[in-house]
């Protein structure tokens, strides 16, 4: 399972999809977002395909897709359905592939009346990579998310900080979160496959992804 990762974030729009695209480009990984909302504005799968420069053959269809750009539980209720975590299972044919599974929002985003994105992560049992902002406020958000992941006994593979470099925040997160920061994604004027691979080469601990 070391080839498979669950990418989550401290909150919405923190950069999970960019991180997922970076990993797909750098590792030639397969991308899967089981639950997608806001499809009127496009899908994260299409964004990853564009940014990572990969084809649809390196992606997996969503299990649940909803048009409104709201939390999965609310979108599902509006659509008259209930998200069933039991239907979200890892594709068996990807045993020897890198796989990047992206969550929706943060880990405590509801997906039905009783469960959260965290419960989906627990079911999948994958090492978690946490996307966090590097800026002011990240320490509280990151440590709270890490506390939830640790309480659920999920393995945290590492944190990736997104934004301007902040050494103090990085050191604080590592010390109090008992976790490694395995990469940083600086502000990029242009997002595309070559730029993302360059970031991976220059700003990530590549040993964290060695086979």
Describe what you observe in this structure.
It is a single chain. The protein has helices at residues 16-27, 44-52, 72-78, 117-124, 138-151, 167-177, 193-203; strands at residues 4-9, 30-32, 35-36, 59-60, 64-65, 99-106, 128-133, 156-162, 181-185. It has 211 residues and is α/β, with parallel strands linked by helices. It has a single domain, classed as Rossmann fold. The strands form two sheets. A seven-stranded parallel beta sheet has the order 4-2-6-1-7-8-9, sandwiched between helices. Helix 1 (16-27) packs across helix 2 (44-52). The chain is globular and about 45 Å long. The model has no long low-confidence stretch (mean pLDDT 95).
Which properties best describe this structure?
211 residues, alpha/beta, Rossmann fold, seven-stranded parallel beta sheet, two-stranded parallel ribbon, 7 helices
Short description:
The protein has 211 residues and is α/β, with parallel strands linked by helices. It has one domain: 3-Layer(aba) Sandwich (Rossmann fold).
